[in-house]
Amino acid sequence: MEKMAKKPLHLMILFGLLLIFTAACSPTKDTNKEAIESVIRTAFTLPDEELMVEINDSGNATYIGDISSSESLSLKNQDNGIEKLLQERYGDKFTKYGYEKFVSSTASVYPMLAEQSGYLTTVEKVIIEQDNDNPNRYRFEAEITYTTHDGEEKKTTMMGKAECTQEKGKIDSLDVHDDGGLAKEMSGESDH
Questions:
Q1: b/e per residue, 25-44, with b = 16+ CB within 10 A?
Q2: What is the pLDDT of residues 27-83, one digit of tens each?
Q3: Which end of the chain has fewer CB atoms < 10 Å from its terminal CB, N or C?
Q4: CA atoms of 143 and 128, how far apart (whole Å)
Q5: Reduced to 3 states, what is the DSSP secondary structure of residue 137?
Q6: Which tens digits make up the pLDDT trace of 89-136?
Q7: From CA 151, how far away is CA 165, in angstroms rounded?
Q8: Alpha carbon of 62 to those of 59, 66, 71, 76, 108: distances in Å?
Q9: How far, in Å, CA of 106 to CA of 102, rounded?
Q10: CA atoms within 13 A of residue 178's CA, in its CB half-sphere
Q11: Which is nearest to 185 in space by CA: 124, 126, 120, 122?
Q12: Mean pLDDT confidence for 14-24
């Protein structure tokens, strides 16, 4: 009878040790990779109708030109629908520098090109690799399927780099180095 009581106890201890070992050996999630993938999927799933409504809203217009630099600065920092939407989508994933750089280029260019060309884009797969020499740097490839304004479906691969900060999940820079000709094609400059 004593052996029977020890057997379940041994099994419970063994099971507990197995759980601890499994948890300790499980790969930890990389919040930097998660942030990079989230940004890529959000920025390149187009058209972005919500953003285009805000861009086309005259109430969100900014002033350029005949105003003093102090007035320009105060107007630039003014919250509007575009800034609120972009901040909601990307603000927690970037440093201040990274956010400003990304929204002034990538996050605004591709949605406008898709809107003007009538293209639809979908991010099918994102592959992100961490740099062996610098753990804050990442390379990414995104497989994108897009439909032209004529209804023709095509695929391309977009490649770029991202640099994150020591604070996990914060991107300091995300740059597309090669979009597989997507921007050119959407702007009508492609030979395709």
A1: eeeeebebbebbbbbbeebb
A2: 678 999 999 999 999 999 999 999 999 988 888 876 544 444 444 444 444 568 899
A3: N
A4: 12
A5: strand
A6: 999 999 999 999 999 999 989 999 999 999 999 999 999 999 999 999
A7: 41
A8: 9, 12, 11, 7, 14
A9: 6
A10: 8
A11: 120
A12: 53
pLDDT digits (tens, 9 = 90+) for 153-171: 999 999 999 999 988 899 9
Close Cβ partners of 56 (under 8 Å, ≥ 6 residues apart): none
Kindly tell me the sign of the dihedral angle through the C-alpha atoms of 130, 136, 137, 140.
Answer: positive
Residue 28 has what pLDDT?
79
Residue 24 CA: distances (Å) to CA of 38, 96, 168: 27, 35, 20
Rounded-to-integer distance, Cα 42 and Cα 125, Å:
13
Q: Does the structure show a pLDDT above 90 at 21? A: no
| Biggest distance spanned by C-alpha atoms of the chain | 94
Q: What are the structure tokens assigned to 187, written together?
A: 């702007």
Measured CA angle at 48 (ends 186, 30), to 5 deg: 100
